[in-house]
Design a protein that fits this description.
- Helix content is about 35%, strand content about 15%.
- β10, α9 and β11 form a beta-alpha-beta unit.
- α6 packs parallel to α7, α8 packs parallel to α9 and α12 packs parallel to α15.
Length: about 500
């Protein structure tokens, strides 16, 4: 780290300043501490509001130099140490630790609140998860063989009203398998929204095809049928619409364009399991649909993914590629060059227990959304997530837009200082070195704006409504404080 973070700047004060200036900085800063620095920016002492009060009670005046009353025996961390090593310096008595560079200049501040964070997302494992996992362990079936894999796949298929589902090792693996099963490869183009996680385009690159990036709609944050139509050429063989942050893409419109152009449609449902379009589940529109069960998703298997398909022949191809290119009917005979993308029985056991609780998870997340919108709706400077009239999103990570990138970062730092974990929105894929060979169709103004202003707030299956009330309160406070600091 080469320069001080935007949050710690508000805590810095020249050691030659007086107590009045220290009080002003304490009021404007965060964490209730002032870091006094010399002319070279090196930390020479610290001061809290308690130190100021004690100094005044002992006869000091507001014009006294702050350095006369600062603490010189402070605890500090080092940028050369890991975050975990620096966090060990925190204690009940030492609640803030400045992190210094090699020259003794403050770079950032660690707070005791970071030991007890409001996490961005945590899974809930209070159903049958332990029971089913113990069953696997006592029976000895812990690898990809075992009854829970089949039971989990059956549960997913029944949920979506399809004949079959294939469980696999990750959502990324699911995307890769879908493209392989669909015959997508070198020379082909695949239309992908720029505003999504990199796995969507990584899978395209891994089969030798070319991603074609399109912008998203400001009213849904997803790909539009019009963007797909504009991006399609004779080389275009597939499209991967992404149901981003739990909001569905316009699948009826996308399917119409895809049908006219004979395109394979792979739905990326990683963030949107149980979301609906006019009552119909996402994942039931495309030729193939992919799900992720990473720990922050709607449901989890730790790591893991799955695919469903309309065409049983496609599903058969997925199963073939997933298991080394072999069929169960003829082991150690490889029809195609396949992969080991299998899910373990242990993971599937957790997944089955999670499927049993999906309605509970969805309802809980909807209450969190309602709470966020009741607390943040109408607050100047905060734009809430969109919700199309035809869509029934699932609240994956509740995400707001703030006035600009610098204020967004300052607010994120402010929240972190209070133990609240947040996450910036996805960096548009068209602007990343991994995809330099991709084709870009049209402008990317919406994707860029969402990246610059978006901030995702704690939203998980164990996040409480009390957590949301606290997050919203401190977010409103942060917006006022950070705006005042910027304007000053």
């Amino acid at each position: 780290m080469n320069s001080a973070s935007s949050s710690i700047v508000r805590n810095l004060l020249a050691e030659t300043a007086d107590l009045h200036a220290a009080m002003e900085r304490l009021n404007a800063g965060i964490q209730g501490i002032v870091l006094l620095i010399d002319l070279d920016g090196r930390l020479t002492g610290v001061m809290t509001d308690g130190d100021v009060r004690r100094a005044i009670l002992n006869g000091a005046t507001l014009t006294d130099p702050a350095m006369k009353h600062m603490k010189r025996d402070f605890v500090s961390g080092r940028a050369s140490l890991s975050r975990e090593e620096n966090l060990t310096l925190l204690s009940e008595r030492c609640r803030q630790v400045p992190i210094l560079d090699g020259e003794g200049r403050p770079l950032e501040m660690l707070s005791w609140t970071q030991l007890w964070q409001t996490a961005l997302a945590n899974p809930s494992l209070s159903g049958n998860e332990i029971k089913y996992v113990l069953d696997c362990m006592t029976s000895g079936w812990i690898s990809s063989a075992g009854a829970y894999v089949g039971r989990f796949e059956t549960a997913l298929a029944e949920l979506h009203g399809v004949k079959g589902a294939i469980a696999c090792s990750s959502g990324t693996a699911a995307l890769h398998l879908a493209l392989l099963a669909g015959g997508i490869g070198a020379g082909d183009e695949v239309v992908v929204p720029s505003f999504t996680f990199g796995a969507t385009a990584n899978a395209v690159v891994q089969v030798g095809a070319t991603p074609v990036f399109v912008d998203v709609d400001p009213g849904t944050w997803t790909m539009t049928p019009e963007a797909l139509a504009a991006a399609s050429t004779p080389k275009t063989k597939a499209v991967i619409p992404v149901h981003i942050y739990g909001h569905p893409a316009d699948m009826p419109g996308i399917m119409k364009v895809a049908s006219e152009r004979d395109l394979l449609v792979i739905e990326d449902c990683a963030e949107a399991m149980t979301a609906r379009i006019a009552g119909r589940l996402v994942g039931t529109f495309g030729d193939l649909s992919c799900f992720s069960f990473f720990s922050n998703k709607i449901m989890t298997t730790g790591e893991g993914g799955a695919l469903i398909a309309k065409d049983e022949r496609l599903l058969d191809r997925v199963a073939l590629f997933r298991d080394h290119g072999m069929r169960k009917s003829r082991r150690y005979y490889h029809e195609v060059s396949g992969l080991n993308y299998r899910m373990t029985n242990l993971q599937a056991a957790i997944g089955l227990a999670q499927v049993e609780r999906l309605d509970q998870f969805r309802a809980h997340r909807e209450r969190l959304r309602e709470c966020y919108e009741a607390q943040l709706g109408g607050v100047p400077g905060i734009t809430l997530m969109p919700r199309a009239s035809w869509a029934e999103p699932v609240n994956w990570l509740y995400t707001v837009l703030l006035p600009d990138a610098s204020l967004r970062q300052a607010i994120a730092d402010y929240l972190l200082a209070d133990g609240i974990e947040t996450r910036r929105t996805f960096t548009p894929l068209h602007d990343q070195p991994a995809f330099e060979g991709a084709r870009i169709e049209g402008g990317m103004a919406v994707s860029q704006d969402l990246f610059e202003r978006g901030l995702s707030l704690p939203t998980g299956n164990t996040t409480s409504e009390e957590d949301v009330l606290r997050v919203a309160r401190i977010l409103r406070e942060a917006l006022l404080q950070c705006r005042a600091t910027v304007s000053a």
